[in-house]
Design brief:
This protein is mainly beta and about 700 residues long. It contains 12 helices and 46 strands. About 10% of the residues lie in helices and about 40% in strands. Strands 13, 15, 16, 21, 23, 25, 28, 29, 30, 31 and 33 form an 11-stranded mixed β-sheet that branches.
């Protein structure tokens, strides 16, 4: 039994004091890391509203224009705003109402991919805006304008209050929040603004002021510290802890542990061990049952539960961490009244071992407000990405709170440019209670997940991330997650969460797995279905495959490298690679070079890229073209191809270069081998793109 540390005790006292106080920027900052708050119905009811640049033609669910997609690019048939206040006149911009919300309430999240023009933010009916300046700066980094004079430093907000293209910067208001965009709608204007609106006008809220970052610096800094390092900074009570190892033969289901209540599971750690780790993490299903419920509240493949499947893809978020050694940690609080039981089921054909550790803490069950934690997984295999379709993540009847989402996909698209392999043009659509139109209507899947422009890099933040994306571009296994702490969505009678699948190209054989995280009151029912062996078939990319010159790679020529190389190389077979093989170069030491012929049939401007293996064997490489730098490796000129756990296909960057007809020489250089590994460079294909 481990007692609260002084820091954790102070934090608990701080939270309890703030919970009885008015809503302020400080109390909202603390909510950003408050797991326990999510477990109960709100003391003061509210709804999270969402204002975006979605295509206003999408006005009837399932109607002819339901999947319209003019949502911020400019020139939309209907202006993507609540109201036109002033039309543009010549070079003079127009004025457009983004939102006008009667308080009390709180701005909880902002986002943009790109937006020209300015934003004016008015609070409580003031004629003087609290912010009047560039729209993009406000939507991505709302607190920057107010940081001067506080002892909050910008570095504390980066990666915590600012996550990728989103800002989680609470701005409470007592009476009213009004935002006006000043610009020309023919230009780009993507935006999201989410606002918590309290039901009762009697909720006491202290309106955001320009010196709030100074006033509430302690709360902001405390929250930022936990967001930046939840593994070390998130306080754990650990009243009772148990650790076991369960061995499961194919088809076997076994109880790992059980705790009696009342109480709450506060931390869960699992490691899955098997000869085929990737298969085991998908085919070992975790069942967590509270109070002997007939259907477990948690039913998910172990790896998918932690939002980073398939396989082990290390990352850290606020609720989950995945480590290189295969350990996976959950910090979600799971209340129970009488008991909680954790079981594992092996739906694969190999023996599996599961190491499981769980800790609980005291927690009384409030018969009027406490809720169960739910995480129920589903998948649809063998999909075709055209025509567009709304994929249900959760359809629930009853009372609860929606708190998170993960999309776990297998995308066999053959395009090598993001526009040729992009899956996520579709929008999130969330219906709450008696909605006839969604309370949340987004502008793209990646926009919901807080990034933009079909990005394919690996990234992760406390609330959002892309811990897996195989490549090239968006091909292969792709996982996105987003967790809702201050932007959660309570519901009284209904929550229906859909994510539209709308791809740039028609792709057959697409698989889409969904993980919805939510809390529910006893009696809440959802559309969960039992997980079958077919659902959890081993995650395998179909192959062999060949790159396709489509959309952004239209007109490209692709070459298999072994015929173009002057040097000793070998082939490594595998359907993950183009044409089922990877060309392997094993230099003797750093500094050694390999020459690759680039045949150009017609003189012109081109980009020249290499598709290279990124894995645990690969190190750092650089390259020149005809003896000159050509944009390979970006500003540094070096590509780091090492990752201890992931295997990816990374395409090198290239400037636009003018090439004559005939042969040119690309010289690849090993700058540094991978740690504790023999020198290794894997070359999948050469890509010549006319520009």
């Amino acid at each position: 039994m481990r007692h609260l540390t002084p820091i954790a005790l102070a934090w608990t006292l701080f939270v309890s004091i703030c919970s009885a106080a008015p809503v302020t920027t400080g109390t909202m900052a603390l909510e950003m890391v408050d797991f326990d708050r999510l477990c109960e119905l709100p003391a003061d009811n509210y709804k999270t509203l969402q204002f975006t640049s979605y295509d206003r033609r999408s006005d009837m669910p399932g109607g002819p224009a339901w999947f319209s997609n003019s949502d911020g690019f400019g020139g939309a048939p209907i202006p993507a705003f609540e109201k036109v206040l002033k039309e543009p006149q010549g070079d003079a911009p127009g004025e457009y109402l983004m939102l006008d919300v009667e308080g009390p309430g709180v701005v909880v999240r902002t986002w943009t991919a790109q937006i020209f023009g300015d934003i004016r933010v008015y609070l409580d009916g003031s004629d003087e805006p609290i912010y009047d300046g560039p729209a993009e700066a406000f939507l991505k980094r709302p607190y920057d304008t107010f940081i001067e004079g506080s002892n909050v430093v910008p570095e504390e907000l980066d990666g915590t209050f600012y996550q990728r293209d989103a800002g989680y910067c609470p701005m409470p208001f007592a009476k009213r929040c009004r935002m006006v965009w000043v610009g020309n709608p023919r230009g780009t204007h993507f935006y999201y603004v989410q606002v918590r609106k309290y039901d009762s006008p009697d909720v006491e809220v202290k309106t955001f002021a320009k010196d709030d970052l100074k006033t509430y610096a302690n709360e902001i800094k405390s929250a930022a510290a936990i967001l930046a390092n939840p593994d070390r900074k998130h306080p754990i009570v650990e009243k009772e802890k148990e650790s076991v190892t369960v061995t499961l033969d194919p088809g076997e289901r076994s109880k790992a542990m059980e705790f009696t209540g009342p109480g709450a599971l506060e931390q869960l750690k699992t490691t899955v061990l098997a000869k085929d780790e990737v298969a085991a993490l998908r085919q070992t299903v975790m069942h967590i049952t509270c109070d002997d419920w007939s259907v477990p509240q948690v039913q998910s493949p172990v790896g998918d539960f932690y939002a980073a499947a398939p396989g082990v893809n290390p990352y850290v978020s606020l609720p989950f961490s995945v480590f290189e050694d295969g350990r996976m940690v959950s910090r979600y609080v799971m209340p129970f009244r009488k008991s909680i039981r954790i079981e594992f089921e092996n739906l694969g054909d190999q023996q599996v071992k599961v190491r499981c550790s769980a800790s609980t803490k005291p927690r009384e069950w409030d018969a009027d407000r406490t809720m169960y934690f739910f995480a129920r997984w589903r998948v649809t295999h063998d999909m075709v990405t055209a025509p567009a379709v709304d994929i249900p993540f959760l359809v629930a009847n009853g009372a609860g709170r929606y708190i998170g989402t993960a999309s776990l996909m297998m995308n066999p698209a053959r395009g090598t440019h993001p526009s040729g392999s992009w899956w996520g043009e579709g929008d999130e659509k969330v219906f709450v209670d008696d909605d006839q139109q969604p309370s949340w209507f987004g502008t793209g899947s990646e926009d919901y997940y807080n990034y933009s422009w079909s990005a394919f890099d690996i990234f992760y933040y406390p609330y959002c991330g892309q811990p897996r994306n195989d490549g090239p571009a968006n091909r292969g296994f792709v996982t996105n997650y987003r967790f809702h702490f201050i932007d959660d969505q309570p519901f009284d009678t209904r929550c229906s969460f859909y994510m539209e699948l709308l791809a740039h190209t028609r792709v057959e054989g697409f698989s889409y797995a969904c993980q919805a995280y939510h809390y529910g009151r006893p009696g809440m029912m959802d559309d969960h279905r039992a997980i079958t062996r077919e659902d959890v078939r081993k995650p395998v990319l179909p192959g062999p495959w060949t790159p396709l010159a489509v959309r952004g790679s239209g007109g490209a020529t692709f070459f298999e490298p072994e015929k173009l190389i002057d040097g000793e190389v070998a082939n490594e077979l595998g359907d993950f690679w183009s044409e089922g093989k990877l060309t392997v170069w094993k230099p003797k030491a750093a500094g050694e070079t390999l020459k690759i012929t680039v045949p150009v049939e017609k003189a012109g401007n081109y980009e020249v890229s290499l598709a290279l293996a990124l894995d645990h064997r690969s190190g750092k490489v650089s390259a020149t073209l005809d003896g000159k730098p050509f944009g390979f490796g970006g500003k540094s000129g070096v590509m780091n191809l090492f990752d201890k756990r992931r295997t990816m296909i990374n395409c090198s960057t290239s400037d636009k270069v003018e090439l004559t007809a005939g042969d040119h020489v690309l010289e690849l250089k090993l700058e540094e081998p991978a740690p504790n590994s023999e020198p290794f460079v894997g070359i999948d294909f050469l890509w010549l793109q006319p520009r």
